[in-house]
Amino acid sequence: MADKQPHLNGAYYGPAIPTAEPPRYRPQRGRSCCCCLFGILWKILVVLIVLVGLAILIFWLVVQPRSFKFHVTEADLTQFDYNADNSTLHYNMVLNFTARNPNKKLNIYYDKVEALAFYEDARFSNDDVITHMNSFRQYTKSSSPMSAVFSGLKVVTLNNEQVSELNEDKSDGVYEFYVRLNFRIRYRLGDVISGDFKPKVKCHIKVPFPNNASQTFQTTKCDVDY
Predict the structure, then answer these.
(1) I need a surface site. Which of 49, 110, 175, 217 has the fewest CB within 10 A?
(2) Is the pLDDT of residue 18 over 70?
(3) Which GO BP terms sit in this record (predicted)?
């Protein structure tokens, strides 16, 4: 007689069900393309910046551009009288300048130069030193003279402190002026001419009156500000 099968206790659930794998992430192709394009453009931009920087550096090393130098070489003051009753100033002053081009390869075109004269922060005169009628080209390693004439009568309001300073300068026989010159220039390298540059030149000068024999005018270097 065949053996009896042993009795199985508990329910039978069948084979184990395998665990479902999580869905795989599929990157969006459009976003990937955008990131790739942005990366390429960024690399191109970096390369261009580096090339431009190298070009500027090479140009600077080869040309070695320098700002022009400016001096007040002579000053002639024959009248500077202020009438406090009607605030009128009579003045007559001539200044001679020297502009020097220190560059070895750059020429300078002086297209326009305007000079403004101040006393105690009050502007009393201006003069067109260079206009299109007398503009000129300054060659390398050369100097050129210029002159400004301030002459006339003008109403200038000076306060008590400024009048006191004026009387003190008159007593000392030396007047302190501030002269600002507005330039419009161009640079030339070979056949290439640059666009307009508009530097400002600032001159602080002490001008003796002619009857002051103990004082003479000293050549004064001016500051060039681009």
Answers:
(1) 49
(2) no
(3) defense response to other organism
